[in-house]
Amino acid sequence: MKRVFLEAHNLKNKFSGFGQFNYHLIKGMATQDVSNLKITLNVSDLKALKAEFGSTFRYKKYKSITRHKPFRIKKRYDLWHCLNQNIKVEPFYKTPYLLTVHDIHFVTEGSEGLQAKLRAQFEKKLKRATAITYISEFAKKDTHANFEVPNVPEYVIYNGNTITDTSVPKNFNPIVQPKQPYLFSIGDFSERKNFISLVAMLQFLPEYNLVLAGNNRSLYGDRLRTMVSEYNLEERVFLPGKIADTEKKFYLKNCEAFVFPSLREGFGIPPIEAMRFGKPVFLSNNTSLPEIGGEQSFYWEQYDPEYMAHVLTRGMNTFYEHQHDYETWYIARAKSFNWEATAKQYLDVYHTILR
Asked: How many Å is the Cα radius of gyration of the chain?
């Protein structure tokens, strides 16, 4: 029986992007027949995972010291799966190695020194790889444009939709709840998410409030709060911070539209989550977002606030003129991104490498 190692310690932050990917991929694998593989999860919280998945997997306690070369994991495996491009934990021995690439944002973000360091780390991963999976065609294209990719098998496997159950408890009310129709978005507060453009846009949309969820304790969050104050939008822009799944589903279910003007995305799960509720989706027309959003989403070509407001108003009118058709299309598209199917594709890659 072949032994597969999943470097999945990002599960320690389950609600981060990588944490969500790791958890839902593992959960999807648990629905498949993996009896012919010994899959070991390298994770921090053994108790919770054992309680959920039992003997489906084997478990290894993650130790941060294993990031350093002399202390790397020395047990031999038939396949090592590195679940994202930033992981520092590597096998001690040369072993078949699957690398999953989500994005290469580091080529443009951070200081020059940090960019150089992360480039060097990623180049080593590429050279080590027996095969590479990407979460979007854009992620593959971007990697090839910026790096010398080895001549190994490459696969594009889309992420699944994390929301399959759209129900919200009948009497549930979040602490932060606008009193008038609102637009919704979620993500880390960083330059890349471009939330500031939404605040500027709101000046030209007096009929809407705006809810921006996510970790806003950052310099970018401070900038955004200052901007809200300067535009006198304190009664119209709501920042609930990090939110749990029930709150997220509440905002998605009750918002007028989902707005996501991100400057750079390797995939972009939040728009798919919004589609699952049949909501109109407004996205930046760049990187992976048109690939994920599809032909029925609405797109911003640039970020002038008056132009953005015009696109949203026109898009909302179009949506309501054909609401049933749009809702049907959005829900069907969201359901087409399925974690069980995603997990099966990864397992197929495992078997191909192991053969």
From this structure: 21
